Amino acid sequence: MTEQCKQIETLLSGYIDGELTQQQSQKVHLHISSCDDCRKMLEELKQLKVNVGNMEKPAMPEEILDEIMQDAPARSMQTIGWFLLSVGCSFLVAFCGFHFFFSSDIPIFLKLIYSGIFGGLFFLFISVLRQRLIARKTDRYKGVDL
What does the pLDDT average to over 10-28? Predict the structure, then answer.
């Protein structure tokens, strides 16, 4: 196998998928018109792509998927994970806020600006969370499967 064949081999997949630049595509086209080995490899890759595309993809039944998602260990692990993430983030925010507000190196106007920004974000988050919780309770289509 020549050095040029090695270079073309790395481009064949992109050539099949149409992902090469015009210059690269022309280079591959010219090479495969004169090289039987690379042309054969190109045909094998095309056939492989067709075969993989025609493979039947096994689908998981909805009942099994729902059972897995509603499994007691899965639900408890999810609850524990969210709790630990919330507690960790709360401590991190409290720690950073404490050092930010009690640091004498930061001017008071910067503290006020940052407080306004983060306070606004906090209230926006709370209002969106409240709306989502209300919508969740009153959703008429909650139990409808598609």
Answer: 90
DSSP string spanning 117-133?
HHHHHHHHHHHHHHHHH
Measured over the CA atoms of residue 61, residue 64, residue 67 and residue 73, the dihedral's sign is: negative
DSSP 8-state class, residue 54:
T
For 135, list phi and psi in degrees, rounded to 5. -65, -35
56 token code pair: 């039947």
pLDDT in tens, 73-86: 888 898 999 999 99
Q: How many C-beta atoms lie closer than 10 Å to residue 8's C-beta? A: 23
Tell me the HSE value of 60 on the side-chain side, using a 13 A CA sphere. Answer: 8
CA atoms within 13 A on the CB side of 75: 7
Structure tokens, 80: 């524990």
CB atoms within 10 A of CB 13: 14
Structure token digits, residue 129: 């969370």
Query: For residue 104, what pLDDT is reported?
Result: 85
